[in-house]
Write a structure and sequence with these properties.
This protein is α/β, with parallel strands linked by helices. The chain has helices spanning about 10-20, 70-75, 85-90, 105-110, 115-125, 145-155, 160-170, 175-185, 210-230, 235, 240-250, 255-260, 270-285, 305, 310-330, 335, 340-345, 355-365, 370-390, 395, and strands spanning about 5, 25-30, 45-50, 55-60, 80, 100.
């Protein structure tokens, strides 16, 4: 397969729209980003396949109003692999699916051992895909022909894969639940912005003192500003470990910072004034962040037996029955019910504990209807049994 051309001018884009409109059936869609190279998660290439239209490789940065594709793409289902990864970039372009079929999610629901695109294509169609360009810098221009061939292969087989998976879902009685899961992917809200995103800095917890945290915050913000202005992945400018090392070393002068071997990265020396200014701001500020912030994160389950023994008993009773039910459905436990939902329910269950109250709590936590039907009674029974077990212990009676 060779000879692909990138659609990167108005004339070619208008022709591509006409080609897509003249095709029929669902659209196979994929996106290539430049994660690890660029700051943004924008789409640097959008691949679309449709019966009768073939593969179209669209270059969004080179075009205006890519959303002109939306009326055409709204005509039918989109087939994607790991849709949750690609939908944000597509929505940034003004492209929204009317409905989707996610081949990765379908493979999970069917209990496939491996759910990467290559593995799913090989299992369903017996075709082996080369994945040598999966981590490439897709902001590169011009894109090499070998990369374009790789990108095209990400969509040309999706329709055939979908048809095989549709049959498998029907055979396992999972057509309806799969449709519910696909819709949930579309409806899932965007993650809210973190209040203190600088706290994501790897190695931050190795630092001690609020002043050190203030300096780390200023360095992180300085790097973020530079990354955004240059559209460069922050870690490519200065890695997290280097920022933390600079704080820990507490250099007395800018020259000391420059001499610090652990402070490296492509911009560690060329932007030395920027980093030193950040350190000085952190040393001077009176706005000292706390080392620990309030969080609704639950303690690790291994600590429950001491901190909340009743919750520990509930979790230990419910987790195996949910896992057993998932196994009987031939799917991973996390697709039947996410561990976080079960943990929160075990930590603070509704009262009284019944299948009805558990169902309501599951729905409020974001579980889908089919998940609630499959697990609510099991969880309620397990929770009730765990209470009886705790009450029957000798230490509980004394």
């Amino acid at each position: 397969m060779s000879g692909y051309t990138v659609i990167d001018d108005e004339e070619a884009f208008v022709a591509a729209m006409a080609t897509l409109a003249g095709g029929s059936g669902p659209f196979a869609v994929d996106v290539e980003r430049a994660s690890g190279f660029r700051y943004s998660q924008r789409a640097y290439l959008v691949q679309i396949w449709r019966e009768g239209a073939g593969v179209l490789l669209i270059d969004p940065p080179a075009l205006t109003d890519v959303d002109r594709l939306q009326p055409i793409l709204a005509e039918d289902e989109w087939i994607l692999h790991a849709a949750s990864q690609d939908l944000p970039s597509l929505r940034e372009l003004g492209l929204e699916p009317p409905r989707i079929f996610d081949t990765e999610l379908a493979a999970r629901l069917l209990g496939h051992d491996r759910v990467g695109l290559g593995a799913v294509v090989e299992r369903t169609l017996g075709i082996t895909l080369a994945k040598e360009h999966s981590a490439a810098d897709w902001s590169t221009r011009p894109l090499p022909q070998s990369w374009l061939e790789y990108a095209a292969l990400d969509v040309v087989h999706l329709r055939a894969v979908r048809d095989v998976l549709v049959a498998e879902l029907a055979e396992q009685g999972k057509t309806v639940l799969a449709a519910e899961e696909f819709q949930a992917v579309i409806d899932r809200p965007s993650k809210p912005l973190r209040t203190d995103p600088w706290r994501r800095l790897t190695g931050l917890n190795s630092l001690r003192g609020r002043r050190a945290y203030a300096i780390a915050r200023e360095l992180w913000n300085a790097r973020e500003e530079l990354a955004q202005s240059t559209d460069t992945a922050p870690g490519r400018l200065v890695p997290d470990r280097s920022l933390v090392a600079a704080v820990a070393a507490n250099p007395a002068t800018k020259r000391d910072l420059s001499a610090l071997k652990a402070f490296n990265g492509r911009a560690s020396r060329s932007e030395l004034d920027r980093w030193w200014a950040a350190i000085e701001r952190g040393r001077a500020t009176e706005d000292l962040p706390p080392e620990r912030v309030p969080s609704d994160t639950l303690p690790p389950p291994r600590a429950w037996v001491d901190r909340n023994p009743e919750a520990d008993a509930r979790l230990k009773a419910a987790r195996p029955v949910v896992e057993e039910r998932a196994a009987s459905l031939h799917m991973p436990t996390e697709n039947l019910l996410t561990p976080e939902i079960l943990r929160r329910l075990a930590w603070s269950p509704p009262q009284p504990i019944t299948a009805v109250t558990i169902s309501i709590a599951l729905a409020e936590a974001g579980a889908r209807g089919w998940q609630i039907l499959e697990t609510s009674q099991l969880i309620a029974d397990a929770f009730v049994d765990s209470v009886q077990t705790v009450e029957s212990r000798p230490e509980a009676a004394s």
